[in-house]
Automatic annotation (TrEMBL):
Single GO MF annotation: DNA binding
Protein species of origin: Puia dinghuensis
Keyword ATP-binding on entry: no
Lineage: Bacteria, Pseudomonadati, Bacteroidota, Chitinophagia, Chitinophagales
SUPFAM superfamilies, A to Z: Winged helix' DNA-binding domain
PROSITE patterns according to UniProt: HTH_GNTR (PS50949)
Domain HTH gntR-type: start-end pairs: 7-75
UniProtKB keywords: DNA-binding, Transcription, Transcription regulation
PANTHER family: GNTR-FAMILY TRANSCRIPTIONAL REGULATOR (PTHR38445:SF10), HTH-TYPE TRANSCRIPTIONAL REPRESSOR YTRA (PTHR38445)
Coiled-coil region list: none
UniProt KW DNA-binding keyword: yes
Protein name, per record: GntR family transcriptional regulator
Length: 126
């Protein structure tokens, strides 16, 4: 995983976990990688993963079963989508709107491109 300097690593890892859940690679109700497993996989300090997991527990995306490990919440898809939507609206969308404004573009111009992107994603995930 390539980390950006513009955002805390634990939040970038939280985005990674949410993406795994939203892509249904990590199934709601099932165990997710342990702190150590994910730390090794992403080549980060286990304390960083622990901070990520604590944050995701606060967001109700994952939960801890003491002595067993961490699990994706039963409603993890909805909770992860809610979290990522909020993040997108607060962080990414203002820049997208600014670019559209500066380029004199109408959001309607993006519809065909978005439809094409959705088709590609569906084909990739099939």
């Amino acid at each position: 995983m390539q980390f950006r300097e513009t955002q805390s690593i634990y939040l970038q890892i939280a985005d990674y976990v949410c993406e795994k859940i939203l892509l249904k690679e990590w199934v709601p109700g099932e165990r997710i990688p342990s702190v150590r497993e994910l730390a090794v996989q992403l080549e980060v300090n286990p304390n960083t993963i622990m901070r990520t997991y604590e944050f995701l527990q606060q967001e109700s995306i994952i939960f801890n079963q003491r002595g067993i490990g961490f699990f994706a919440a039963n409603d993890a898809l909805e909770q992860a989508a809610r979290y990522r939507r909020r993040l997108f609206i607060e962080s990414d969308l203002p820049q997208v709107f600014r670019s559209l404004f500066l380029l004199g573009m109408d959001p309607e111009e993006l519809k065909p491109l978005y439809q094409q992107f959705k088709k590609q994603m569906r084909a990739k995930n099939s």
